[in-house]
Write a structure and sequence with these properties.
It contains 13 helices and 18 strands. By secondary structure, the chain is an alpha+beta fold. It folds into two domains: 394 residues, Creatinase/methionine aminopeptidase superfamily (Creatine Amidinohydrolase); 62 residues, Winged helix-like DNA-binding domain superfamily/Winged helix DNA-binding domain (Arc Repressor Mutant, subunit A). Strands 6, 7, 8, 9, 15, 16 and 18 form a seven-stranded mixed beta sheet that branches. The longest helix is centred in the first third of the chain and has 26 residues. It is globular.
Length: 498
């Protein structure tokens, strides 16, 4: 439920003053970005060196969490920062899995093992004092031993199409957003304000080129302090962005059966906003490999392959819900989560110092979930339902289930800052890419049969190369340097001791 309320003066300071880009907020954004970038490099290193799939997805996620926890603990030790830590647990979803795969030790489902050709989506986030940087990157698994014996080959086929589309759409949208920093840009996409309608049209045009569909959960949205779209339960009175909502997209697809000539976007009123300089934006795009077929991409809860039911490992606090807890373990867990994780999603292991604490937390969890104080983030997979199924009426649930097929999904997510010349020390407008970018998250080696020929899109893709012409300084926050062997050694040892 979306609750509207009058803001107090203290709340207005939190919303307005604390969201202005200045030296303090930029420092925190940059640091969050640097830690997130470093964490992404660390996890990619684990995937590259995962010989013979010696580590499960769950093990790699937990190693990534431990790396981020150590990195955030080591910053702002002397300066006053009220909160810092993981904003999104490390998640690794392969192929049709789309979100929330972050297994705890001892969970029945450990995410499986990765093999050559899998598209693994790495997702994580970090915040410093509520200033949040999130990232996601599609990483194609290679067989290192096979590469040594024969000439390596790129990934091809529908997965490659999805990987290309997600990457190119992300880069194009970031360039489109940067146009607010140079109103006089002489390119077609720069005519008029940058609106939600423009963003959505661009993304869907690229998806069409590569014969894929934008998957539910995709969004391009403004980020503010403590409000980064990290959880659906966090209500926002002043949301600004475009989303691809599953129900809305399904309605759009079905409406074309009866009125195929109507291809306009269905929620123009919701996307009627303008991007402005001085804002921070999240570009989070998922592409489903649908092979150009007409249909609907749906997500469904994954509950396991066999008799053992898979339970969620990530939870979010719903601060709108109040209830007098009866169980002491539940009260303790609620208190610790509020102190350690704030408004961000978390795993029980984040609030437990040892095995005894974790066991106690599990005892208290059920009451918190039962009364909707903690909302579990379920593991979800993507499925494709052919549109032909709906032509002759409303199919039954059984018919839809029978016709649904798992569909691989690629994902890219970056957090960017649109810094005006007035706010910049250099005197030039700056687009600061806090996460992602070709150095930290280079595109995997894939080959698609499709390519971008649209001149407007190609102009956007080349826009950053002409930064002197357009007067914008493009910066990518770089990861910290570290020794992989030294970084993983203490983490591995601590996990063994537990």
């Amino acid at each position: 439920m979306d609750m509207q309320m009058e803001l107090t003066s203290d709340q207005r300071v939190l919303i307005d003053d604390k969201n202005r880009l200045n030296e303090t907020s930029l420092e925190r954004y940059r640091l969050a970005g640097q830690i997130a970038q470093t964490g992404l490099v660390f996890v990619q290193g684990l995937l590259k060196n995962n010989h013979e799939a010696e580590r499960s997805v769950g093990e790699i996620c937990r190693l990534g969490d431990a790396f981020l926890q150590k990195a955030t603990a080591n910053v702002f030790k002397r300066q006053k920062v009220e909160e810092k830590g993981i904003a999104l647990p490390v998640q690794i979803e392969k192929d049709e899995f789309v979100c929330s795969v972050a297994p705890e030790e001892g969970d029945v489902f450990q995410g499986g093992f990765l093999k050559e050709g899998d598209v693994a989506k790495i997702t994580l986030g970090v915040h410093i004092d509520g200033y949040t940087a999130q990232v996601s990157h599609s990483f194609v698994i290679r067989d290192r031993d096979q590469d040594l014996r024969q000439e390596p080959q790129p990934l091809v086929g529908t997965k490659a199409d999805a990987v290309c589309a997600a990457y190119i759409a992300t880069e194009a949208v970031i360039s489109l957003l940067s146009l607010v920093l140079t109103p006089n840009a002489t390119i077609a996409a720069g005519e008029g304000p940058i609106t939600g309608q423009k963003i959505k049209t661009l993304v869907e045009k690229i998806a069409t080129i590569f014969r894929v569909k934008v998957a539910p959960g995709s969004r391009v949205r403004r980020v503010r302090r403590f409000l980064a779209g990290q959880s659906d339960v966090v209500q926002e009175n002043d949301f600004k962005g475009v989303t691809w909502d599953e129900a809305v997209e399904e309605e759009r697809a079905l409406s074309r059966i009866h009125k195929p000539e109507e291809s306009s976007l269905s929620n123009e009123f919701a996307d009627d906003f303008a991007v402005q300089e001085g804002e921070v934006w999240l570009v989070d795009l998922r592409m489903a490999a649908t092979e150009g077929k007409n249909g609907v991409v749906k997500t469904t809860e994954f509950t396991g392959y066999g008799a053992d039911t898979v339970k969620p490992s990530i939870y979010s606090r719903d601060y709108a819900v109040q209830y007098g807890l009866k169980i002491n373990a539940a009260r303790t867990l609620l208190s610790r989560s509020a102190a350690l994780t704030s408004v961000y999603p978390f795993k029980l292991s984040y609030v437990a110092e040892n095995a005894s604490d974790l066991a106690s937390a599990k005892l208290g969890l059920s009451e918190l979930v039962q009364h909707h104080i903690f909302v579990p983030q379920t593991i979800r997979t993507a499925e494709f339902v052919p549109l032909d199924l709906f032509v002759n009426g409303n199919p039954s649930y059984r018919d839809i289930k029978k016709a649904s097929k798992p569909v691989p999904v690629a994902r890219e997510m970056s957090t960017i800052v649109l810094l005006s010349a007035a706010e910049s020390h250099s005197g030039f407008s700056e687009l600061i890419r806090l996460t992602g970018g070709n150095k930290t998250a280079p595109p995997s080696w894939v080959h698609s049969n499709y390519e971008v020929t649209d001149p407007t899109i190609n102009e956007l893709l080349q826009f950053k190369a002409n930064k002197k012409l357009h007067g914008i300084n493009f910066q990518d926050v770089q990861p910290s340097k570290f020794d992989m062997a030294e970084a993983i050694k203490p983490i591995d040892n601590s996990m063994d001791l537990d």
